[in-house]
Amino acid sequence: MAKAVESYLVSEGYQDLVNDFAWEFNLLESDQINAWCMPGGKVAFYTGILPITKDEAGIAVVMGHEIAHAVASHARERMSNGMLLNGLLGGASAAMGQNPTMMQQILLQGVGAGSNWEC
Q1: Architecture of domain 2-72
Q2: 66 is catalytic
């Protein structure tokens, strides 16, 4: 599937998107019903999701979903957003002379940034 996605992207002129991928798919022993991806094409499935997927077609759906996240660089965007948010919170706390932990809680509640961003 990853090769098919790469071939399509290259044919559409997006070679630069696929240059950084070294696809790796891993199955992790855990009851969690989840799968996730990291920048560069690292994908993991927990064994807990297998009963939900039921067969190869179900696994392909989850795999395609995670490949799409990797190609769209969602993990990279979340990490960048997290670093930016932490920097802003630290700067605001220092500028206001506030306790950084208290200031972080106030700001996170105010902007609703405490939500779960999982894939």
Answers
A1: 2-Layer Sandwich (3.30)
A2: yes
Distance from C-alpha of 2 to C-alpha of 16, rounded to nearest angstrom: 15
> Could you list the pLDDT tens digit for every one of the 119 residues in the chain?
888 988 988 898 888 878 888 999 999 999 999 999 988 889 999 999 999 999 999 999 999 999 988 888 754 555 555 555 566 656 655 555 555 565 556 555 555 544 444 44
Would you kindly state where each structural domain of the chain is located, as residue ranges? 2-72, 76-111
CA distances (Å), origin 118, targets 8, 11, 70, 115? 26, 30, 13, 9
Among 24, 29, 66, 77, the one annotated catalytic: 66
Q: What is the DSSP string of 6-59?
A: HHHHHHTT-HHHHTT---EEEEE--S---EEEETTTEEEEEGGGHHHH-SHHHH
Give the predicted TM-score (pTM) of the model: 0.61
Amino acid at 12: E
How many other CB atoms sit within 10 Å of the CB of residue 29?
A: 7
